[in-house]
Amino acid sequence: MNWEQVVQKVTPYIFKIETPAGHGTGFLCLYNDNKTFCGIATALHVIEYANKWKQPIRLTHHSSSQQLFLKDLEYFIFADWKTDSAVILFQKPAFDLPSNLVELLPLGTPLSIGNEVGWLGFPAIEPFTLCFFSGNISAWQEFRKAYLIDGVAINGVSGGPVMFLHDTDGVRIVGIVSAYMANRATGETLPGLLYAQDVSPFYGVIDHIRSLDDANKKKQEFEMQQKTNE
Fold first, then answer.
1. Which of 152, 144, 147 is nearest to 113 (CA)?
2. Do 179 and 9 form a contact (C-beta atoms < 8 A)?
3. What is the CB-side half-sphere exposure of residue 62 using CA atoms within 13 A?
4. Are strands 85-91 and 14-19 parallel, antiparallel or unpaired?
5. Which stretches of 32-143 are assigned E, i.e. beta strand?
6. How do residues 160-191 score in pLDDT, each as one tens digit?
7. How many CB atoms lie within 10 A of CB 113?
8. In the chain, is it the N or the C terminus that has fewer CB atoms within a 10 Å radius of its CB?
Protein backbone atom coordinates (compact mmCIF):
# COMPACT_ATOMS: atom_id res chain seq x y z
CA MET A 1 0.00 0.00 0.00
CA ASN A 2 1.53 3.32 -1.10
CA TRP A 3 0.28 5.50 1.73
CA GLU A 4 2.51 8.41 0.71
CA GLN A 5 0.53 8.65 -2.52
CA VAL A 6 -2.77 8.58 -0.63
CA VAL A 7 -1.71 11.26 1.87
CA GLN A 8 -0.48 13.55 -0.91
CA LYS A 9 -3.80 13.12 -2.70
CA VAL A 10 -6.05 13.80 0.29
CA THR A 11 -4.07 16.44 2.24
CA PRO A 12 -5.23 19.40 0.06
CA TYR A 13 -8.80 18.66 1.18
CA ILE A 14 -8.08 18.62 4.92
CA PHE A 15 -9.35 21.29 7.34
CA LYS A 16 -8.73 21.75 11.02
CA ILE A 17 -12.00 22.66 12.74
CA GLU A 18 -11.87 24.75 15.92
CA THR A 19 -14.70 25.81 18.20
CA PRO A 20 -14.75 27.39 21.68
CA ALA A 21 -15.09 23.84 23.04
CA GLY A 22 -12.16 22.22 21.26
CA HIS A 23 -11.01 21.07 17.84
CA GLY A 24 -11.39 18.27 15.32
CA THR A 25 -10.72 17.43 11.70
CA GLY A 26 -12.74 17.59 8.49
CA PHE A 27 -12.40 17.33 4.73
CA LEU A 28 -13.84 19.07 1.68
CA CYS A 29 -16.65 16.81 0.45
CA LEU A 30 -18.95 18.86 -1.79
CA TYR A 31 -19.59 21.91 -3.94
CA ASN A 32 -22.87 23.22 -5.19
CA ASP A 33 -23.36 23.41 -8.96
CA ASN A 34 -21.70 26.80 -9.52
CA LYS A 35 -19.20 26.33 -6.69
CA THR A 36 -20.37 29.34 -4.72
CA PHE A 37 -20.78 27.13 -1.65
CA CYS A 38 -18.77 24.19 -0.33
CA GLY A 39 -19.15 21.61 2.40
CA ILE A 40 -16.75 20.19 5.00
CA ALA A 41 -17.52 16.69 6.30
CA THR A 42 -16.74 15.93 9.94
CA ALA A 43 -18.03 14.15 13.03
CA LEU A 44 -21.08 15.82 14.54
CA HIS A 45 -19.65 15.85 18.06
CA VAL A 46 -16.81 18.10 16.83
CA ILE A 47 -19.18 21.00 16.09
CA GLU A 48 -22.36 20.01 17.95
CA TYR A 49 -21.90 22.39 20.90
CA ALA A 50 -20.98 25.33 18.67
CA ASN A 51 -23.97 24.66 16.45
CA LYS A 52 -26.36 24.32 19.38
CA TRP A 53 -25.22 27.55 21.02
CA LYS A 54 -24.66 29.53 17.80
CA GLN A 55 -20.95 29.91 18.40
CA PRO A 56 -18.28 30.76 15.80
CA ILE A 57 -16.27 28.09 14.00
CA ARG A 58 -12.73 28.56 12.72
CA LEU A 59 -11.65 26.52 9.72
CA THR A 60 -7.99 26.23 8.77
CA HIS A 61 -7.14 24.84 5.35
CA HIS A 62 -4.06 22.76 6.09
CA SER A 63 -2.27 23.00 2.74
CA SER A 64 -2.49 26.80 2.42
CA SER A 65 -2.69 27.73 6.13
CA GLN A 66 -5.58 30.03 5.16
CA GLN A 67 -8.25 30.50 7.81
CA LEU A 68 -11.97 31.22 7.84
CA PHE A 69 -13.69 32.56 10.94
CA LEU A 70 -17.37 31.75 10.49
CA LYS A 71 -19.98 33.42 12.66
CA ASP A 72 -23.35 31.86 13.43
CA LEU A 73 -25.19 33.11 10.33
CA GLU A 74 -22.27 32.39 8.02
CA TYR A 75 -22.55 28.61 8.14
CA PHE A 76 -25.23 25.93 8.09
CA ILE A 77 -24.88 22.45 9.60
CA PHE A 78 -26.39 19.33 8.05
CA ALA A 79 -26.47 17.07 11.11
CA ASP A 80 -27.12 13.34 11.36
CA TRP A 81 -27.47 12.52 15.05
CA LYS A 82 -27.72 8.74 14.56
CA THR A 83 -24.37 8.47 12.78
CA ASP A 84 -22.44 11.28 14.49
CA SER A 85 -21.91 12.85 11.05
CA ALA A 86 -22.15 16.45 9.89
CA VAL A 87 -21.44 18.71 6.92
CA ILE A 88 -20.58 22.38 7.45
CA LEU A 89 -21.94 24.36 4.49
CA PHE A 90 -20.59 27.86 3.87
CA GLN A 91 -19.69 30.30 1.13
CA LYS A 92 -16.66 29.18 -0.86
CA PRO A 93 -13.61 31.15 0.34
CA ALA A 94 -11.47 33.38 -1.88
CA PHE A 95 -8.36 31.21 -1.49
CA ASP A 96 -7.73 28.23 -3.76
CA LEU A 97 -9.27 24.86 -3.04
CA PRO A 98 -9.05 21.73 -5.21
CA SER A 99 -11.43 21.94 -8.17
CA ASN A 100 -12.29 18.24 -8.12
CA LEU A 101 -13.27 16.24 -5.07
CA VAL A 102 -11.88 12.95 -3.80
CA GLU A 103 -14.52 10.35 -4.62
CA LEU A 104 -16.48 8.63 -1.88
CA LEU A 105 -16.70 4.86 -1.78
CA PRO A 106 -19.90 3.86 -3.63
CA LEU A 107 -22.91 3.01 -1.50
CA GLY A 108 -23.62 -0.65 -0.97
CA THR A 109 -19.99 -1.71 -1.39
CA PRO A 110 -18.40 -1.66 2.09
CA LEU A 111 -14.79 -2.72 2.35
CA SER A 112 -14.17 -6.30 3.43
CA ILE A 113 -12.61 -7.39 6.71
CA GLY A 114 -8.81 -7.33 6.56
CA ASN A 115 -8.46 -4.39 4.18
CA GLU A 116 -5.93 -1.79 5.27
CA VAL A 117 -7.17 1.81 5.60
CA GLY A 118 -5.57 5.06 6.72
CA TRP A 119 -6.83 8.27 8.29
CA LEU A 120 -5.62 11.83 8.85
CA GLY A 121 -6.22 14.27 11.68
CA PHE A 122 -4.89 16.73 14.24
CA PRO A 123 -4.36 14.80 17.51
CA ALA A 124 -4.70 16.79 20.73
CA ILE A 125 -1.18 15.81 21.78
CA GLU A 126 0.12 17.55 18.62
CA PRO A 127 -2.75 19.88 17.71
CA PHE A 128 -0.87 21.83 15.04
CA THR A 129 0.47 18.78 13.20
CA LEU A 130 -1.49 16.79 10.64
CA CYS A 131 -0.79 13.14 11.43
CA PHE A 132 -1.34 9.91 9.53
CA PHE A 133 -2.59 6.65 11.05
CA SER A 134 -3.42 3.25 9.60
CA GLY A 135 -4.94 -0.08 10.54
CA ASN A 136 -6.99 -2.99 9.27
CA ILE A 137 -10.74 -3.36 9.18
CA SER A 138 -11.75 -5.73 11.97
CA ALA A 139 -15.49 -5.78 11.30
CA TRP A 140 -18.31 -4.17 9.34
CA GLN A 141 -21.49 -3.40 11.29
CA GLU A 142 -24.31 -3.32 8.77
CA PHE A 143 -26.93 -2.18 11.28
CA ARG A 144 -25.21 1.16 11.78
CA LYS A 145 -23.18 1.37 8.56
CA ALA A 146 -19.88 1.57 10.41
CA TYR A 147 -16.44 -0.02 10.52
CA LEU A 148 -14.50 -1.30 13.51
CA ILE A 149 -10.80 -0.80 12.80
CA ASP A 150 -7.70 -2.13 14.52
CA GLY A 151 -6.12 1.29 14.97
CA VAL A 152 -5.79 4.40 17.14
CA ALA A 153 -7.92 7.53 17.24
CA ILE A 154 -6.82 10.39 19.49
CA ASN A 155 -8.93 13.39 20.51
CA GLY A 156 -8.74 15.94 17.70
CA VAL A 157 -8.63 13.33 14.94
CA SER A 158 -12.42 12.95 15.08
CA GLY A 159 -14.00 13.81 11.75
CA GLY A 160 -10.86 13.00 9.79
CA PRO A 161 -11.28 11.04 6.55
CA VAL A 162 -10.73 7.29 6.49
CA MET A 163 -9.05 6.45 3.17
CA PHE A 164 -8.51 3.43 0.95
CA LEU A 165 -6.38 2.94 -2.17
CA HIS A 166 -8.21 0.77 -4.70
CA ASP A 167 -6.09 -1.13 -7.22
CA THR A 168 -8.02 0.29 -10.20
CA ASP A 169 -10.25 3.10 -8.89
CA GLY A 170 -7.57 5.01 -6.97
CA VAL A 171 -8.09 6.82 -3.67
CA ARG A 172 -11.52 6.63 -2.09
CA ILE A 173 -12.93 8.09 1.14
CA VAL A 174 -14.64 5.25 3.00
CA GLY A 175 -15.75 7.08 6.15
CA ILE A 176 -14.83 9.40 9.01
CA VAL A 177 -13.26 8.84 12.41
CA SER A 178 -16.02 8.91 15.00
CA ALA A 179 -14.67 7.41 18.23
CA TYR A 180 -12.08 5.20 19.86
CA MET A 181 -13.26 2.44 22.17
CA ALA A 182 -10.49 1.57 24.60
CA ASN A 183 -10.34 -1.88 26.18
CA ARG A 184 -10.71 -1.52 29.96
CA ALA A 185 -11.66 -5.11 30.71
CA THR A 186 -8.77 -5.53 33.14
CA GLY A 187 -9.12 -2.11 34.74
CA GLU A 188 -6.27 -0.71 32.68
CA THR A 189 -6.51 1.06 29.35
CA LEU A 190 -5.46 -1.43 26.69
CA PRO A 191 -5.51 -1.17 22.89
CA GLY A 192 -9.06 -0.97 21.59
CA LEU A 193 -10.89 -0.36 18.33
CA LEU A 194 -11.46 2.70 16.20
CA TYR A 195 -15.07 3.33 15.24
CA ALA A 196 -15.52 4.86 11.77
CA GLN A 197 -18.83 5.91 10.26
CA ASP A 198 -19.21 5.16 6.56
CA VAL A 199 -19.92 7.80 3.89
CA SER A 200 -23.66 7.16 3.48
CA PRO A 201 -24.72 10.30 5.45
CA PHE A 202 -22.64 12.48 3.10
CA TYR A 203 -24.29 11.03 0.02
CA GLY A 204 -27.60 12.20 1.48
CA VAL A 205 -26.32 15.77 1.86
CA ILE A 206 -24.79 15.76 -1.63
CA ASP A 207 -28.08 14.55 -3.12
CA HIS A 208 -29.95 17.29 -1.25
CA ILE A 209 -27.64 20.00 -2.59
CA ARG A 210 -28.03 18.60 -6.12
CA SER A 211 -31.81 18.72 -5.79
CA LEU A 212 -31.61 22.37 -4.73
CA ASP A 213 -29.33 23.09 -7.71
CA ASP A 214 -31.78 21.37 -10.06
CA ALA A 215 -34.71 23.33 -8.62
CA ASN A 216 -32.76 26.58 -9.02
CA LYS A 217 -31.93 25.72 -12.65
CA LYS A 218 -35.56 24.97 -13.45
CA LYS A 219 -36.60 28.23 -11.84
CA GLN A 220 -34.06 30.17 -13.92
CA GLU A 221 -35.13 28.37 -17.10
CA PHE A 222 -38.77 29.17 -16.36
CA GLU A 223 -37.99 32.84 -15.73
CA MET A 224 -35.99 33.06 -18.97
CA GLN A 225 -38.85 31.46 -20.90
CA GLN A 226 -41.30 33.92 -19.38
CA LYS A 227 -39.14 36.85 -20.48
CA THR A 228 -38.82 35.40 -23.97
CA ASN A 229 -42.60 35.09 -24.26
CA GLU A 230 -43.22 38.72 -23.20
1. 147
2. no
3. 25
4. unpaired
5. 37-43, 57-61, 67-70, 75-80, 85-91, 116-121, 131-141
6. 999 999 988 999 999 999 999 887 777 766 67
7. 12
8. C
